[in-house]
Amino acid sequence: MSIGKLYGPLANPRVQKCILVAEFNGVEIETTPDFKFGVDNKSEDFTAKFPMGQTPGFETSKGTLLSESAAIAYYIAQSNPNTTLLGKDAEELAKIWQLNLYSETAVANASISILKPRWFNLAVTPEENTKNYDYLHRVLTYLESYTSGKTYLVGDRISLADINLVGNLKLYFAELMTSELRTKYPNVTKYFESLINLPQFVKVIGEIKYLE
């Protein structure tokens, strides 16, 4: 039985994150495969439920409306009373949330600051470009240290923190991580590759083509 309906285009990384949580958690959610961003999220029906028009949006089976992918992912994770995605105790759960927030802020912002000017043909000064890449390397250096010797970020099994981080790293490996950078950050690369090839990630995200 479905625990709710997820609104948003299936190619959206934040939508994919929520679907992945459901896949790993063994719960059923409805999705909207034909959702068109820029059209459906501006409709009267959608904005009546989600006034900001942002995706993803989630309507639980009880009618509760949720926005913000972190909140939606958490709801889906805790909807299974036997979930293993939220750690074994309060300490692990706190660590998971620490890493979730790091993924949503530092990791995401480091890539967007570099890629947004490329996507939208925006002017960037040499100083800004250097600053953006310095920040990217700071983020990767932290992750390189944190993932050393680890298969999973917290504990001995995949958690919400892993789903969040891999979802954000997908953009790195698709558009930023050249072979030189993958060599420079081998722990991050090994961590990403070990998880992105799991059946659940392959099903939802598909194949990642690396940069040369």
TrEMBL record:
GO molecular function annotation: transferase activity
Per the record, the similarity remark reads: Belongs to the GST superfamily.
The answer to whether UniProt assigns keyword Transferase to this entry is yes
CDD domains registered for this protein in UniProt: GST_C_EF1Bgamma_like, GST_N_EF1Bgamma
Q: Which residues form the GST C-terminal domain?
A: 89-212
The opening ranks of the lineage are: Eukaryota, Fungi, Fungi incertae sedis, Zoopagomycota, Entomophthoromycotina
GO CC: one term?
cytoplasm
Name all GST N-terminal domain ranges: 2-84
- Asked whether the UniProt record includes rRNA-binding among its keywords, one would answer no
Q: Which InterPro entries match?
A: EF-GSTs (IPR050802), Glutathione-S-Trfase_C-like (IPR010987), Glutathione-S-Trfase_C_sf (IPR036282), Glutathione_S-Trfase (IPR040079), Glutathione_S-Trfase_N (IPR004045), GST_C (IPR004046), Thioredoxin-like_sf (IPR036249)
Q: Species name for this entry?
A: Conidiobolus coronatus (strain ATCC 28846 / CBS 209.66 / NRRL 28638) (Delacroixia coronata)
Keyword set for this entry? Transferase
The GO biological-process annotations, alphabetized, read as: translational elongation
Name of the protein: Glutathione S-transferase
